[in-house]
Structure formats: structure tokens, C-alpha cells
Amino acid sequence: MYSPAAYAFCNRRRDRMKLLFFDRPGFVPVPKRLTEGKFRWPRRQQTVVTLTTEQLQWILDGIDIGAMVRHPVRQHQVAG
Questions:
Q1: Backbone phi, psi, residue 38, to 5°
Q2: Residue 62 zone, left/alpha/beta (φ > 0; ψ -120 to 50; rest)
Q3: pLDDT at 64
Q4: Would the pLDDT of 1 be above 60?
Q5: H or E element that contains 28
Q6: pLDDT digits (tens, 9 = 90+) for 61-78
Q7: Which of 4, 7, 31, 63 is the most exposed place for a label (fewest CB within 10 A)?
């Protein structure tokens, strides 16, 4: 019926976030409000951004995922 997904919405001040999950009988809203600071919401050109579970957790923890740089993928050969 519905694929397993969570939808996150952030207000303009970026101090409140709502997560929306689907459970078998219906949708479950989970609000989160910061008393200090702001969520580091990703700045993208697209209206809808797909995040991994790990990236969503980083945002909830206050990490700016737009400033993160991953190590390049390296291909190693077996010496023989």
C-alpha cells in the first residue's frame, strides 16, 4: 500500500520540525521544537530532497549536512 518512508517538514524560522510516518492504521505526526538554536536544514534547489535515515538523524542532531564532505571512493587492486 504505502512504502516505508518518513516525511520531514521545517518551518521558516527552522526551530520546529514535523516528521510524518505511515503506520498501518494511518499517519503518525511527530513534532520537534528547539528551545534554542535552529535546525541546519539542507539548502537545495529542489523543493523535495531525499535523505537517508542517517542524514535525517544528523539534521536532528544539529549537523549541517551541506557542509559535510565525504572521502572520495577509492578502488584498490589486489597485489599478486
A1: -135, 155
A2: left
A3: 85
A4: no
A5: strand 26-33
A6: 888 888 877 778 888 888
A7: 4
